From TrEMBL:
PANTHER family: DUF839 DOMAIN-CONTAINING PROTEIN, SLR8030 PROTEIN. It comes from the Bacteria. InterPro entries: PhoX (IPR008557). This is Tat pathway signal protein. Pfam families: PhoX. SUPFAM superfamilies: NHL repeat.
Length: 599
């Protein structure tokens, strides 16, 4: 191992146990300021946010969405540490979007009905925001209002479907006979960036927006049932199907392409966005496979070949990577434009002896054949989970983000938690997922053979098991059960989710657990921690307001400005007055002496 030890000088902070805590704590010598909240203006002509939730859906189209998640700072080349585009995901919506929550009625058949203006506002509050940001001469960062770069991408935005599956029957609907254009991106959780300067937003729990009411059809359609699309009266989340017919994926045999039965196949992809071209059409890159995808994290080799790592975040699902055929060609945007349309998708097998291998999802190989019901590579990609089942992939404890060390290319994966581990027949305990009823999660790290992102073999180990310290007690005085005890050196946490290496090799860990769950009593509110990958020592850097998760982190190249997302706070953050409705927000963190964050 030739990891370089990063400089971590911050003075860690304690857990935040106050049940009414409604702010952000950072260590001595740091300042955290609210920078960008749900409802803030993005596009030109945006209306001010109204605290009673009464902004219209048309107004929401120009304002920041809800549930900020993955985020990235793209510097402008002339002043990279002072000027850039901040791009972030808006994963889903909260009842706070409307004046009095979601209006839901039922028709005489028991189907939920929603008002059209609410559904449209909900679709408008999903997607991505792009904002131009600039450091002022007084040292303060500001969003540039009325910038031509400022852009909202929503559940309505037209996007191209590209790559292996584009134009095949799997993607055709009554509204798109060509199978090449889809409206919107949904449930954008974590992200990735390419070496050529584009943003990759990842579609996670899209399954919850669709319903197939035909039980017989559902049963024989793995594109629905293997991914958890609802087979019920309504979709799992917001019953948009009552207003927008494309969310009703029940087959209609009287119209072309079965109506919208294939609409769910048009989600679950990596979406590539060029933030520097505000008029560009986002592209869903289907060759990268269809998952309940958390992230798409780059590892770039010395030979300019690369891999993108993905977590498929559902209990017992798998870790994947995509290896493009082409190399990255610096400065040649024409050559790089469609790199993500050609390559090989692999799924990970974690053997119990610490070795691992990547098995390719390639039609015609290793059982991905007609005999097993596959008809083409497009079929394999649409049903990537089913293909991975056949390949014998290792079931994991909900893979979330992946981080790649900037020098050594070691890969770290968060496995956030999994209450089914050791409880369900198909999720037996294995070496990489060693705890029954795993409530606190773990981080696994692996090294590709020769540190080559395109390798097909790797060595892996458990980096740390999250959880309580040995001998800790719960609120009722009982000792913490064995399966909830971790081995963290330093500050404790539960349920690692966001994970990222900064430019100098500090490993940042973000958490997503129920801070009202009695099993998390010793953890306090959700947090962000700074970890030394050489010693595995963990120092708590930030604690958030009650009810939030901490997700998404980025810095300027010089590491002196850091943006972190506070998702779904519960009380009144960021107003923190005990009465204003809470808003997901990006906070900007700086060091009071102007230094690098974490030192
Ligand atoms: Fe949206 Fe897996 O977190
Ligand atoms: Ca997440
Ligand atoms: Ca999570
Ligand atoms: Ca979330």
């Amino acid at each position: 191992r030739n990891l370089q030890q990063p400089d971590i000088g911050l003075k860690p902070i304690p857990v935040e146990q106050d049940l009414m805590f409604d702010a952000v704590n950072v260590p001595e010598g740091y300042t955290a300021n609210v920078f960008f909240s749900w409802g803030d203006s993005v596009e030109k002509g945006a209306s001010p946010w109204r605290p009673d939730g009464s902004n219209s859906w048309q107004e929401q189209m120009k304002q920041a969405g809800q549930n900020h998640d993955g985020i990235w700072f793209f510097p402008f080349p002339d002043k990279p540490d002072e000027h850039g585009l901040l791009v972030m995901n808006h994963e889903y919506i909260n009842p706070t979007l409307h004046p009095n929550g979601l209006t839901i009625t039922e028709d005489s058949h028991g189907f939920k009905q929603r008002p059209e203006h609410e559904v449209k506002k909900e679709m408008a509050a999903h997607g991505v925001s792009v904002i131009e940001v600039r450091k002022q001469s007084n040292g303060h960062w500001q969003k540039v209002n009325d910038s031509d770069y400022n852009r909202r991408i929503t559940g309505f935005t037209p996007m191209d479907l590209t790559g292996e599956v584009a134009g095949t029957d799997f993607l055709k609907t009554v509204a798109d006979h060509a199978g090449r254009q889809v409206l919107g991106t949904l449930n954008n959780c974590a992200m990735g960036v390419t070496p050529w300067g584009t943003y990759l937003t990842c579609e996670e729990n899209w399954k919850n927006y669709f319903v197939n009411r035909d039980a017989e059809d559902y049963e024989q359609r793995p594109a629905h049932h293997r991914y958890g699309v609802a087979q019920d009266k309504n979709s799992n989340y917001y019953a948009w199907e009552s207003v927008e017919p494309r969310f009703n994926a029940t087959p209609d045999h009287n119209v072309a392409h079965g109506g919208y039965v294939n609409e769910p196949n048009r989600f679950g992809w990596v979406v590539e966005i060029d933030p520097f071209s505000p008029d560009s059409t986002p592209k869903k890159r289907t060759s990268m496979g269809r998952l309940v995808r958390e992230c798409s994290t780059l590892s770039l080799g010395d030979d300019r070949r690369m891999a993108f790592y993905f977590g498929d975040d559902t209990r017992g699902e798998y870790v994947y990577k995509f290896v493009p055929d082409q190399v990255y060609e610096p400065g040649n945007s024409a050559a790089n434009r469609d790199i993500l349309d050609h390559g090989t998708l692999y799924v990970a097998v974690f053997h119990n002896d610490g070795r691992g291998e990547w098995r390719p999802l390639v039609f015609g190989q290793n059982g991905l054949t007609r005999r097993n019901g596959f008809t083409s590579q497009a079929d394999v990609l649409v049903h990537a989970r089913r293909a991975a089942d056949i390949l014998g992939a290792t079931t994991m404890d909900r893979p979330e983000w992946v981080a790649v060390h900037p020098q050594t290319r070691e890969v770290y994966v968060t496995l956030t938690n999994n209450k089914h581990r050791g409880k369900k027949e198909d999720q037996e305990i294995n070496a990489a997922n060693p705890r029954e009823d795993n409530r606190h999660g773990q981080i696994v790290r692996f090294t590709e053979e020769n540190s080559d992102p395109t390798a097909t073999h790797f060595d892996w180990e458990i980096f740390l098991l999250a959880g309580d310290r040995p001998g800790a007690t719960l609120a009722d005085g009982s000792s913490v059960p064995e399966n909830l005890v971790g081995d963290i050196k330093g500050d404790i946490f539960s349920s690692p989710d966001g994970i990222w290496f900064d430019y100098q090799g500090r490993l940042w860990i973000q958490t997503d657990y129920g801070d009202d769950d009695e099993r998390n009593i010793n953890m306090g509110t959700n947090q962000m921690l700074c970890c030394d990958p050489v010693t595995a020592e963990v120092k708590r850097f930030l604690t958030g307001p009650r009810g939030c998760e901490i997700t998404g982190v980025t810095t300027t190249p010089d590491g002196k400005a850091m943006w972190v997302n506070i998702q779904h706070p519960a009380i009144s953050f960021p107003a923190s007055d005990g009465k204003t409705r809470p808003r997901s927000s990006t906070v900007l963190i700086t060091k009071d002496d102007g230094g690098v964050i974490g030192t």
